[in-house]
Design brief:
By secondary structure, the protein is α+β, with helices and mostly antiparallel strands. It has one domain. The chain is 29% helix and 23% strand. The protein is built from four helices and six strands. It has a six-stranded mixed beta sheet with strand order 2-1-3-4-5-6. A hairpin with a 2-residue loop joins strand 1 and strand 2. The longest helix has 18 residues.
Length: 139
Amino acid sequence: MDEFEKKYGIEENEKVKAFHRSRRMFCIHKNNLFVAEPNTPDSHARWFEKEGWISKEKDKLMDNIVRGFVDESGNIYFYIKYNFEVNKNAESVFFSYLKELVEKLKLSPEAKILGGMIKKEPGERFPPRKEYGKVKDYL
């Protein structure tokens, strides 16, 4: 396992990479919404490293940057930290960019908004820590 895998507690095997490819990552960094290219096998940490925002040695940004993904059903997950947590600040940041995210990815008003995730076995679906309702409830 490399440093990122150790911090996530998840080995990036083929099953995990297949999950990564099935979703569309996003993050909010320096007051901008960034959306990753589709079909990428990377974790957020690897994406951020490729962007030059973090390194394996300097990755404190992972604690604060609001990030997430849209799953294959069009539902939105957001969180912070390697442990996929959610807090009031993350909620405030996320919801201030929701309209832009919905427009950029042409998401359905029926899409669910889910905060945080509870780790399971790698490759298994991680259940959300919190459910907020649907996109249409917030726009």
